[in-house]
Amino acid sequence: MRIGVVNDMPMAVELLRRLVLSIGEHQVAWIATNGREAVEVCRRDLPDLILMDLAMPEMDGVEATRRIMAETPCSILLVTASIEANLAGVYEAMGHGALDAVDIPSVGIEGNASSQSARLLTNKIATIGKLIGDAPAKTKRRMSRDAEPTPRRLIAIGASAGGPAAVAAVLSAFPVDFDGAIVLVQHLDAQFVPGLTDWLGQHTPLPIRPAREKDSPQAGTVLVASSADHLVFKSAQQLGYTPSPKDNFYRPSVDVFFGSAAQWWPGSVIGVLLTGMGRDGARGLRQLRDKGHLTIAQDRATSAVYGMPKAAAEIGAAVDILPLSAIGSRIIEACERST
Q1: Nearest residue to 159 (alpha-carbon basis) of 75, 252, 22
Q2: Annotated active-site residue in 187, 203, 230, 293
Q3: Among 48, 103, 255, 280, the one annotated catalytic
Q4: How does pLDDT run across 79-112, given as a tens digit for each residue?
Q5: Any catalytic annotation for residue 160?
Q6: At which residues is 4-aspartylphosphate found (predicted)?
Q7: Residue 47 in contact with residue 29, Cβ under 8 Å?
Q8: Does the active-site annotation cover 280?
Q9: Which DSSP string do the residues of 270-302 spell out, in sequence order?
Q10: 332 in Cβ contact with 178 (< 8 Å)
Q11: Residues 126-184 pLDDT 10s
């Protein structure tokens, strides 16, 4: 892959350059020292992947991500000094289409990938390389409530690039007395899930937390997949995690969760596939539709990355293809109609 590096710190730039070159099959296409420069360079020379810092002069990484994804869409991996200290910026940039985030690794003077943090970055680059091969990038406070122990309806949501903002938009439409159980599978490292749940909690009155082994979906509660393993139903009411299929590089996989919901959930399911790169979720959404459940895919115009919803549309997996602003109300309408 041809990789662009956006960072205003010379030591960090050199570290990333050495690390990229050490991988072998990748090359540094260009280096930009701020977001504004990156936007301009992308218009002339669009790389396969951008390693984007967040805190920079003139234009930060959040705005640069927004501009690039709007004008010259490209795979973007956030690589910054401290993800934990910049969680709000991370989720905002992901809402604009950034794929993932990682701390800048500390590597030796030779730029090798011996440290754990360096291996994490190279693994993320490799995963994005597979995603690009699968589907190119160009293309209030929480309010407490009594939980219903056996909800009839399950809202199963899958998302990837651009997902946090899209999920927030959907959840913000749900009232405090919403009686469906909600489970979210977002392509995201497990270490960032607590921060994601906190951020999403600002956009919905519903309780939201990471899904734990042996959890049961509860009415009016949002559970978020929180492991590199796949979230699945292990029985009609009990969730859990499994490493299988091991060859699925989407982790956690939307397809795997949707498929298990189609197999196990005893009531009605509303499957929702939001913005994201690749094809994960399309096949599982089709399984849900084939079982007679309502399935919804986000439309092209409102998707930060029109990969996963496009794949669903291509195989006829979605009953409804809707703009993001209409998805929440459609779910509520379907729930009320079946009451």
Answers
A1: 252
A2: 187
A3: 280
A4: 988 887 888 899 899 888 898 898 887 655 454 4
A5: yes
A6: 53
A7: yes
A8: yes
A9: EEEE-SBSSSTTHHHHHHHHHTT-EEEEE-TTT
A10: yes
A11: 888 877 764 433 333 333 344 344 688 999 999 999 999 999 999 999 998 899 999 99
